[in-house]
Amino acid sequence: MGSGFGGFGDPGGRRRAVKRFDDQAGPRPPLLTLRATPDNPLPPGGAVVAVGTRDDCTLRAAKWMPAGRTCRGTVTLLQGRAEFIEKSYETVGDLLARGFAVVAFDWRGQGESDRRVDDPHKGHVARFDDYRLDLLAVAETILVPQMPGPHLCLAHSMGGCIALTGALDGWLPFQRLVTVAPMLSIRMIRAPAAASLLARSLHRLGFGGRSIPFGKPVSIATKPFAGNRLSRDPARYARNAAAARQVGAGAVGDPTIAWLAEAFRAMARLRDPRAAAGIALPTLIVAAGADPVCGTAVTERFAARMRAGHLVVLPDARHEILSERDPIRQDFWAAFDAFMPGTALPTHAEVGRHAAPVPL
After folding, report:
1. In Å, what is the CA distance from 357 to each residue of 216, 325, 338?
2. What's the rounded Cα separation, in Å, for the pair 247 and 265?
3. How far is Cα 62 from Cα 85, in angstroms, rounded to an integer?
4. Is the pLDDT of residue 349 over 60?
5. Are 143 and 104 in contact, with CB atoms under 8 Å apart?
């Protein structure tokens, strides 16, 4: 197995100190809590679950069952970096309305899951393979024993990077994958080769737990709407900002050096021309044509090499397609619905004028 995600090993043999919210100075909300606001109501029928990983992290997870008697399967949401369960309520509601059960959870180092560094505002992970431990724990604790199949995945940004690596290595516990604006490159970094070398060097020297140079503890979701990289929809942007303020330190700020070094390592592995061809899992990639966070051109090249992959580009969308304006979201859900088991891929007419299917 390659470095980064590859090779599971036994991380429990070298456990590190875990920092939970109740270990931090000042008042912290209970772990098993889901918050809501008038503009961001809690989807009905949910239950919050604490999930323990093999290396002694506690993750916050939640599960929902659809209201009807029948269930089409379970969709597990894989967050992007710095996201949290509350941000996905609208998506959870859309999936429930389609007859799916839903599982969502916070990766370690964000939301209300455990931390490995003293400052809970830092977005930190020592190595990306730790995210595999998180997903495995959710699968063993919730998905397999409690949730109906088939098991499907909807992954965003960093979650897409993790999912595609799991599909490549054969450990992803899903039968189909939809990934939205997957993190295969980071456009915000002007000199990625130099930044990667610096991050890896500092990580090896023991500075991995420190914030990236000029990093700040402020969540990107709370920054002003004007000039934002995430969405063109002011109402949804304001809703997500209010949710981020409500979860406090759960909406982490800029990442640590270790996170950045590991992200570069994972992305480089997936950009190897042999990687995409090695993924056999049926996969739909929905890319944002106006994405200032992750490079859409890199995503297009990746998808073109996949054996079981399909790509739809939504030209007007920014990075967070599921927090975009209604026409863009409608085009996304048209593509999602058509990709579900037993249906064909969408045509250009079916997904609307905003979507541009890319033939593979």
Report:
1. 38, 19, 13
2. 30
3. 8
4. no
5. no
CA dihedral 246, 249, 255, 257 (to 10 degrees): 180
Dihedral class, residue 82 (left if φ above 0, else alpha if ψ from -120 to 50, else beta): left
Instruction: For residue 359, count CB atoms less than 10 angstroms from its CB and return exposed for 0-12, middle for 13-18, buried for 19 or more.
Output: exposed
21: left (phi over 0), alpha (psi -120 to 50) or beta: alpha
CATH 3.40.50.1820 for domain 11-358, yes or no, is: yes
Residue with tokens 């409608």: 330
From the list 319, 353, 325, 357, the residue with the least C-alpha distance to 339 is 357
pLDDT band at 340 (very low <50, low <70, confident <90, very high): confident
8 Å CB contact between 151 and 24: no
Contact, 320 vs 159, CB < 8 A?
no
Burial group, residue 327, by CB count within 10 angstroms (0-12, 13-18, 19+): middle
**CA-to-CA separations, 141 to 20, 46, 115, 133, in angstroms, rounded:** 20, 16, 20, 12
pLDDT 10s digits, 14-71? 344 444 444 443 344 445 789 999 999 999 999 999 999 999 999 999 999 999 888 9
Residue pointed to by tokens 């304006």: 325
Q: Is the Cα torsion angle 82, 85, 87, 90 positive or negative in sign?
A: positive
In a 13 Å sphere around the CA of 52, the CA atoms on its Cβ side amount to 4
Confirm if 179 and 285 have CB atoms less than 8 A apart: yes
Identify the sign of the CA torsion 151, 156, 162, 163.
Answer: positive
User: For residue 228, what are the CA distances in angstroms to 86, 126, 250, 255?
Assistant: 20, 28, 20, 18
Position 344 confidence tier, pLDDT thresholds 50, 70, 90: very low
DSSP string across 54-94: TTS-EEEEEEE--SSS----EEEEE--TT--GGGGHHHHHH
Domain ranges of the chain: 11-358
